[in-house]
Amino acid sequence: MRKPEDCSNMAELRAEIDRLDDTLVRLLAERASFIDRAAQIKADVDLPARIDSRVEQVVENVRRHAENYGLPPDLVEKLWRRLIDWSIAREETHLGPDSLRKT
């Protein structure tokens, strides 16, 4: 693992980016396993896949993390909202669509 300033050519930079991409995909897979577990728990207690208050809490958290790491919060929020939508769709494969659930 190198720091960006330690890379002296594009091959070294690309190798580090590829390494990070692998790590990010692994982390997304780990996150997905927690999403699957959330769907199981939600089914047991009759919760919908989308809980708007939780969505906004997650967005607030990632915006704060983005600021702490020097990333643009608006961009990170857009990325996370896509990730959240994907996660909710994944939960709905286990729970069924929220629109078909009793309220």
From TrEMBL:
Chorismate mutase domain sequence ranges: 4-95
Top EC class of this enzyme: isomerase
Family matches, as Pfam families: CM_2 (PF01817)
Keyword line: Isomerase
InterPro entries (UniProt xref): Chorismate_II_sf, Chorismate_mutase-related, CM_dom_sf, CM_II_prokaryot, Isochorismate_pyruvate-lyase
Highest taxon of the lineage: Bacteria
EC number: 5.4.99.5
Classification via NCBIfam families: CM-like (TIGR01803)
Protein name per UniProt: chorismate mutase
Source species: Pseudogemmobacter lacusdianii
